[in-house]
Design a protein that fits this description.
It is built from seven helices and no strands. The chain has one domain. With about 160 residues, the protein is an all-alpha fold.
Length: about 160
């Protein structure tokens, strides 16, 4: 029994120290502008496809429209195909490092976390990914949701060791 707990703790804390695919090269500040550009493009796509729309999110949770389910389902299919291709062809990062996937062990905390996440998403109409796009399109009230998400992450980090995982 103690071995099971130790292994679970290891799985939870194993990624605390370093990133798995963290590049070793250090670059100048402007090297990261590409991420700003891709993130901006991602935000524009979110806004134009209406996935950041509170009304579209409410339609999804009320089962009134297929729009959001189609977008999410398409993302899952593209992600699954991408992971399959990366594994099959052993694709590497741009800096030449191998891409690795670690297996995760299922536990009941994932159900509770998913329920809390879904409840928050349904109540606020905001998922963590599009928060910045919503703020960028002028929905400044979403700043409260962003600060709440940050506070929730901080609380989890503070009490993570005392929670049953």
């Amino acid at each position: 029994m103690a071995t099971e707990i130790d292994n679970t703790d290891f799985e939870i804390h194993s990624l605390d120290e370093t990133y798995i695919n963290e590049p070793q090269a250090k670059h100048k500040w402007y090297y990261n502008i590409k991420y700003l550009l891709v993130g901006s493009l991602f935000g524009i796509v979110f806004v134009k496809s209406e996935v950041v729309s509170w009304f579209r999110i409410q339609e999804m949770f009320r089962f009134q429209s297929f729009h959001m389910y189609g977008v999410i389902g398409s993302a899952v299919i593209v992600g699954a195909i991408s992971v399959w291709l990366i594994k099959k062809y052993k694709i590497k990062t741009f800096s030449g490092e191998p891409i690795t996937f670690s297996t995760k062990k299922f536990n009941k905390g994932q159900i509770y976390g998913g329920l809390i996440f879904g409840l928050g998403w349904g109540l606020t109409g905001a998922c963590p990914g599009p928060l910045f796009a919503q703020i960028g399109m002028g929905a400044l009230v979403v700043i409260v949701i962003l600060l709440s998400a940050i506070a929730g992450t901080w609380v989890y980090g503070k009490y993570r060791d005392s929670l049953s995982h």
